[in-house]
């Protein structure tokens, strides 16, 4: 047995225990609705439950298509097509450039034009549509509802990613081709597209929002926080993409230094990363599961995530053995599990509804610009890979300071 499978097994056991403990505290995830509504609102509660289930069903299919490709993207280019690391970086840059251009238009066309905006749509339109739907049902200002959905999305995202990592490993083993996971993703995208076209209502936005438009004084307090969220988004999510590009090379390099001739189980490694991310999502859910829903709690979670992320990337550089680097990257992935639901909640509260999709799209631009800049400096050396992670770690440490400075408590109803 390889050294990576026991880690995956241990993580899955921990997740199973946490899942069972969480299940005992609530008979079903959707019962969070009953905590924030009266018995007289049963009909609305049922409508919200239906809305939430419909959203998560389609979100799951869309995210599965993305995750199926995650574990073998770099390996496909490197091993199957025999491309150099600089050429692979150029291909990644092309993808991020198209996503960056798409981000400028995603806010305007997110609900109208899907072609050509795939990644940007996935990370902007889905979330904006869900928040708009909650607002339409009258639950947009309920902290428990938004936090519950974001937490569930992150946990669900993790479990789907784990399954996709294992499925992709199995497909590659059965077909002896690293192209098979990419073909399999089509079988997720087709039903997702059909369900969106037949079950989702068009999001035209809300025309009359005058009563909720922030005052100039409130805007002056909001923009430093929005800037901070944008900074954190740019460099933590940017670091995530750089890690996605780099982790295969980092582990292969350390593995070769140990004179190990066996090929690395990329699907198992990817599933372990996703298990770590799911565990991080559970940590966030537990932290905010007792009515502790506030910008202060979420900003604190973001600070913890930044600390773990910076530490994980730095340890991946400092440690020499492949298995130790793997564990360090698992720590980085755990930080992402804490970060994603926390930052989604913060953005859902701070960003004005009438500009949500546009601002969400604009927030993707610095992410793509940062990743493109770093990848443009890529060289096919161990030093280049390590330098990338060190730079990311330093930028994340700055994010901790900004979050501590600007993301202190801000009462939602004081907007």
Automatic annotation (TrEMBL):
Lipid bilayer topology: Multi-pass membrane protein
GO biological process, one term: monoatomic ion transport
Residues spanning the signal sequence: 1-23
Entry keyword annotation includes Transmembrane: yes
Classification via InterPro entries: MFS_trans_sf, MOT2/MFSD5
Keyword Cytoplasm: no
Top-level taxon of the source organism: Eukaryota
GO molecular function: molybdate ion transmembrane transporter activity
Bilayer-crossing regions: 89-107, 113-132, 144-170, 182-201, 222-244, 264-285, 297-318, 324-346, 388-407
Key words of the record: Cell membrane, Ion transport, Membrane, Signal, Transmembrane, Transmembrane helix, Transport
Pfam families assigned to the protein according to its UniProt record, in alphabetical order: MFS_5
Gene Ontology annotations for the cellular component aspect, listed alphabetically: plasma membrane
Localisation: Cell membrane
Record function comment: Mediates high-affinity intracellular uptake of the rare oligo-element molybdenum.
Official protein name in the record: Molybdate-anion transporter
Species assigned in the record: Clonostachys byssicola
